[in-house]
Amino acid sequence: MSDDLAGRLLVTLDLDGVTDKAALMDRSARTLALPDWFGRNWDALADSLSDPTVWPRAAARQGLLLVVRGWRAYAEAKPGEWRTAQEVFAEAADRTPTLTVALALGGSSALGGHSALGGSS
What we know:
By secondary structure, this protein is an alpha/beta fold. 40% of the residues lie in helices and 19% in strands. The protein has helices spanning 21-31, 42-49, 57-62, 72-77, 79-95, and strands at 9-14, 64-69, 99-104, 114-118.
């Protein structure tokens, strides 16, 4: 996999309205079409993000660029949980060369205006 993120499947994890862990897990499961057995806990999220076999089919071939947007309300409502979520995103990206996770700083899901959280390219 090259360092070029342009070839990766872009998936936007929109956290608008998410203010707790349960809602984050539900939104992640829905957005990433995670299997029914997804455990909706931090370890299960890290494992799912690190496992290309549960990603959308195109991402398994191309790599995955996960852009997380609309996260500020969650970060303000549950700062400890949000720190854990960021650690999970970073750990998964560090473990998986074909995964990059980026936090969108603006209100748009467009690629402009976001910073990379972690991950190999």
